[in-house]
Amino acid sequence: MNRDFWEAIPWPVIGLAPMDGVSDAAFRAIVAKYGKPSLTITEFTAAEGIRAGAERLLQDFIYSPEERPVLAQLFGADPSAFFIAAAVAAALGFDGVDINMGCPAKNIAEKGAGAGLILDPERAKEIIRQARAGITAWAEGTELQDLGVPVHISQAVMQRRSQLNITERLNVPVSVKTRLGVKTNTITDWVQHLLEESPCVITIHGRTLNQLYSGEADWEAIAEAATLIHKTPTKVLGNGDIKSIGDAHAHIQRYRVDGVLIGRACFGNPWIFQGHIATEKERRAVALEHARLFNTLFPGGHFLRMRKHLLDYMHGFDGAKELRVRLMRIQTLADVEQILC
Questions:
Q1: Residues 302 and 263 in one domain
Q2: Co-location of 168 and 51 in the same domain
Q3: How high is the mean pLDDT of the chain?
Q4: Which structural domain range is residue 153 located in?
C-alpha cells in the first residue's frame, strides 16, 4: 500500500472538507488560491455511475494543480464499482482516493451507501479492498478498458491525462470519511472494523446519520476513536463545527487528532485557512472571480448554482444585504458583472 502522500504531507492537516453541491472545481480552485488548505477533496462521485459510463460525472473530477494534494471522493454500495471508479481516479492523477461512508442523505443511506455502510461493516471493508485493488491494477500497468472501464470513459480519462501532462501510474492511498454511527454513537466498534483494512486516514464527522447536521458535533466521541486509531499506523482527522483557524488548532490539540477538515465555515470565506478577515473589496472581487471561473468550467445552463456562493460572500460590510437581494435574482455571468463590477 502506497502511503507516500500521507507520509509526506505536513502535520497537522487543516483541509477543505468535501461537500456535495458546494465543493465543485470552481469552489475548490478559489479556496486553494486564497486559503491554501493542507489538502482538498472533491464532492462525492457515484462509483456505480462511473462504472455505468456516466461521462458527465467526470466533471466532478476536474481539478487544478493549485489544489494539490487533492483527493477524489467516491460513494456507492457495490464494491465492484469501486474497483473501476478508484482506478479512474488514480488514472486522472489524484493524490489519493477517499471513500464516503458518512453521507446522511436518506436516498443514499437507504441504498446502503454513505453512512448506510456503518450498518454493513463487511461490505464496507470489501469496498476498501476493491478500491485498493483497482488502483493497484492500474498502477501495475493494466489499461482502463481491461479493468472494465467503459470505452468512452477510458478515452476521456486518457485525453485528460494528456492535457494535464500526467505520465506516471501511481499506487495512490485510500482513506475513509465517516460518522459516529447511525442512530447512536457506535464509533469505537465501527472504527475497529475500518482499521482491519488499514486505511491511511479515517476522517470522523462528529454526528450520527440521524442527526444530519443538527446539534453540536461530539468531539469527545471523536477523541475516543482517535485513541484507538493512534494505536495503529492510520491517522485520524476530525470534522464538524470548526469555525476558524484558531478553532481548528484548538480542536487538534484538545481532542488529540492529527488534523481537521473545515466545511461550512468556508462558505464565501476561502480566507479562513489563513485567518484573514476579508474586506468588502476583496469579497466583491473574489466573488466575481469565482463566478467567472464557474462560468468557464461549467458552461451550458448551470450558472444558477452560483447564486448560493455569491450570497455567501456578501457579509460583514455595509450594503451587503442589498447586494444579496440583487444577487438572488441573477441569471447569467453578465448579471453578476453588472452588480459587482
A1: no
A2: yes
A3: 96
A4: 4-274
Query: Using CA of residue 168, residue 93, residue 50, residue 199, what is the dihedral sign?
Result: positive
Domain boundary among 274, 295, 327: 274
Examine the domain organization and report whether 265 and 305 are in the same domain: no
Residue with cell string 457506535: 186
Residues 239 and 324 in one domain: no
- Domain count within the chain: 2
Beta bridge partners of 174: 97
Write the CB contacts of 64 (distance below 8 Å, at least 6 apart in sequence): 25, 28, 29, 32
Give the CA-trace dihedral at 198, 201, 205, 206, to 10 degrees.
70
- Write the secondary structure of 206-257 as one string of H (helix), E (strand) and C (coil): CCCCCCCCCCCCCHHHHHHHHHHHCCCCCEEEEECCCCCHHHHHHHHHHHCC
Q: Give per-residue pLDDT as tens, 316-335.
A: 999 999 999 999 999 999 99
With a cut of 90, say whether residue 5 has pLDDT above it. Answer: no
Radius of gyration of the chain (CA): 20
pLDDT in tens, 262-306: 999 999 999 999 999 999 999 999 999 999 999 999 987 789 999
Burial-class residue 230 by CB neighbours within 10 Å (0-12, 13-18, 19+). middle
pLDDT in tens, 95-142: 999 999 999 999 999 999 999 999 999 999 999 999 999 999 999 999
Same domain, 53 and 180: yes
* β 70-75/96-101 pair status: parallel
Nearest C-alpha neighbor of 114 from the set 234, 210, 232: 210
In a 3-state reduction of DSSP, which class is residue 161?
Answer: helix
* Domain closes at, from 224, 249, 274: 274
Same domain, 194 and 320: no
**Which CATH number goes with the domain that contains 18?**
3.20.20.70
